[in-house]
Recover the amino acids of this structure.
């Protein structure tokens, strides 16, 4: 399994296995991450939709996970 710097991303395979989460809406304010991270999540077997805004990503969601890097 691929290793991730962010614990929330690393925990997503467990969310998929235990909770049945398989669809993700993704938003990141950084352009590089916004291009790279959806591809990495798709490699883990998720159906990933990139969102233009955080609000768009959160609308109608059952679960929201936020990762803040300092």
């Amino acid at each position: 399994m691929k290793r991730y710097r962010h614990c929330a991303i690393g925990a997503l395979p467990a969310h998929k296995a235990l909770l049945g989460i398989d669809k993700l809406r993704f938003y990141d304010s950084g352009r590089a991450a916004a291009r790279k991270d959806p591809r990495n999540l798709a490699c883990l077997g998720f159906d990933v939709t990139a969102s233009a805004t955080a609000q768009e990503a959160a609308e109608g969601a059952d679960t929201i996970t936020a990762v803040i890097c300092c």
